[in-house]
């Protein structure tokens, strides 16, 4: 999967499919996952079906219930500077974006 070539809807579908695969890999029902995540079974069903129905907090709750929240670590990790300009540019912490 090349996420950089996907739109938001396609990414949501892919994430929903991955949640389903992981749930099945762990031999878990949608009801069990929903109970562990503190969401409704319908939320899990919709998340797996089209991904777009999921609020971010519900998606994160499902990741925690699947014990996969650690997978977000690489997403949230600071980018590694590949050039000296990138390294120097990361020394300042921006307070807001440019206009």
Structure description:
The chain has helices spanning 8-25, 30-37, 41-50, 56-65, 73-76, 84-89. With 99 residues, the chain is mainly α. The chain has a single domain, classed as 434 Repressor (Amino-terminal Domain), CATH 1.10.260.40. Helix 1 (8-25) crosses helix 3 and helix 2 (30-37) crosses helix 4. The longest helix has 18 residues, at 8-25. The chain is elongated, with a radius of gyration of 17 Å. It starts with 7 loop residues before the first helix and ends in a 10-residue tail after the last helix. The relative contact order is 0.12.
**Approximate strand percentage:** under 5%
Helix-strand category: mainly alpha
Radius of gyration: 17 Å
Q: Please report the number of helical segments.
A: 6
Using the coordinates above, name the CATH class: Mainly Alpha
Succession of helices and strands: HHHHHH
How many domains? 1
Per CATH, what is the topology?
434 Repressor (Amino-terminal Domain)
Low-confidence stretches: none
The name of the CATH superfamily reads: lambda repressor-like DNA-binding domains
Biggest sheet features: none
Cα shape:
elongated
End-to-end separation in angstroms reads 33 Å
Provide a quick synopsis of the model.
With 99 residues, the protein is an all-alpha fold. 57% of the residues lie in helices and 0% in strands. It is built from six helices and no strands.
Keywords, please?
434 Repressor (Amino-terminal Domain), 99 residues, mainly alpha
